[in-house]
Amino acid sequence: LQSELSREIVFERSDILESKLKNGNVIHIHGSIKQEKDMLVTLNHYLECYGANSENTFPELSVFLDKVFNSKYVVLFMGYGLEEYEILEYMLS
């Protein structure tokens, strides 16, 4: 029971770390309503974060996603659309 109570919900950019990849943790990589300023909602938000010709405002996320998709972690997509190309790119590579 204690191990279930120690699970975390991570949504702040500064907390999206490899060390948070523990069983049971939930990581919101595109923000949360609790931290609206960091939410990626519009196409412009995604381009600012992932776009090749823009300043990457969150470079650690690319490193984090690379670790997640190249390891044995379970990934659950909620509210995902195939138009979110950065995720599709990781899934196909």
Automatic annotation (TrEMBL):
Q: Which domain of life is it from?
A: Bacteria
| Entry protein name | SIR2-like domain-containing protein
